Amino acid sequence: MSKLHDFARAVGADIKEIKTALAGKAEKGEVTANGITQEQLNAAIAQAKTDIIGGAPGELDTLKEIADKISANGGNTDGAVISKIAEVKTELGDRITAIENEDYVAAYTTAKNTL
After folding, report:
1. How far apart are CA 14 and CA 111, in angstroms?
2. In the chain, what are the helix, strand and coil shares in percent, each to the nearest 5?
3. Cβ neighbour number for residue 113 with a 10 Å cutoff
4. Which of 37, 55, 65, 71 is the S-S candidate for 75 at Cβ 3.0 to 4.6 Å?
5. What pLDDT is stored for residue 71 in this prediction?
6. Does the pTM exceed 0.70?
7. How far is the C-alpha of 115 from the C-alpha of 101, rounded, in Å?
8. What is the C-alpha to C-alpha distance for residues 69 and 77, in angstroms, rounded to an integer?
9. 13 to each of 35, 77, 106, how far by Cα in Å?
10. 29 phi and psi, to 5 degrees?
């Protein structure tokens, strides 16, 4: 098969093992029925929002505010957008090639064994 197929099988086997371990812990009352508390969920959501916004100033932390700023600065972004798409297309092609050549099972096994 493919490298991605082998990787998926390795991850799937580990997920099955983790689920079995968690089920045993849930039976012993070590994990809540839902796996996490509401407080943990709220903290994770807040962190995701922080990661997405990434320190953007308050006046540019929504898509609407960014669009308004672009409009206020002339609004014609077609050329810049097309240029950026071409740049991203080239980068994406390079990344796809790297992904195709990566040995995911070896990388996964190495990472798993270092935990």
Report:
1. 13
2. 75, 0, 25
3. 7
4. 71
5. 76
6. no
7. 25
8. 12
9. 20, 48, 15
10. 80, 15
